[in-house]
Amino acid sequence: xxxxxxxxxxxxxxxxxxxxxxxxxxxxxxxxxxxxxxxxxxxxxxxxxxxxxxxxxxxxxxxxxxxxxxxxxxxxxxxxxxxxxxxxxxxxxxxxxxxxxxxxxxxxx
Amino acid sequence: xxxxxxxxxxxxxxxxxxxxxxxxxxxxxxxxxxxxxxxxxxxxxxxxxxxxxxxxxxxxxxxxxxxxxxxxxxxxxxxxxxxxxxxxxxxxxxxxxxxxxxxxxxxxxxx
Lengths: 109, 111
Known about the structure:
The complex is a heterodimer of chains A (about 110) and B (about 110).
Chain A lengths: L3 E4 L2 E5 L4 E7 L6 E7 L6 E7 L4 E4 L2 E6 L4 E6 L8 E7 L5 E2 L3 E6 L1
Parallel strand pairs in A: 2-11
Antiparallel strand pairs in A: 1-3, 3-8, 4-5, 4-9, 6-7, 7-8, 9-10, 9-11
Chain B lengths: L3 E4 L2 E4 L5 E7 L5 E8 L3 E10 L2 E4 L7 E2 L9 E3 L8 E8 L5 E3 L3 E5 L1
Parallel strand pairs in B: 2-11
Antiparallel strand pairs in B: 1-3, 3-8, 4-5, 4-9, 5-6, 7-8, 9-10, 9-11
């Protein structure tokens, strides 16, 4: 099956700085790569996703890039705010779905 | 309000005592899934269902059962729980857009 690795496991940034979280996957057949944000005590919530026929997607302060050749994709958050503090998960594939191990992002005011 | 509900939210039980965690969605989604979340391991898929009466194993199905008799419900059954099934469990559903909607989670402790 698919293997998704996510780095770093924790990330601390100053408010206003950028944050980057990286994931790699193993199955070249995977064609859907979502990112989920999990706030304390809640279930994960989709924040952005990208399909394999697209190299980059942006939604306001967040963007995702995909390199199919290298089998890696990244989440970029610009102008971070304290409310961005959460655990972020990358994932790959549609059925079944494989998640990375998560990155705890702490944005310091 | 579109949502996925799970019950109970918290459960403490003893080894071997059968339990069921219910999951229900009101979005008419065909796809439903169960995950467990453990520190450092992320979310791991237990079982998923593409539609009524169709279920498939995920990454970690051992010790779990599911059923999908109705479109809206997808209960998770632990016939003989063991301490290594202590975890945070999430149910999710998905429509045509691939976006998964997660429930609020069930924290299970097996002593």
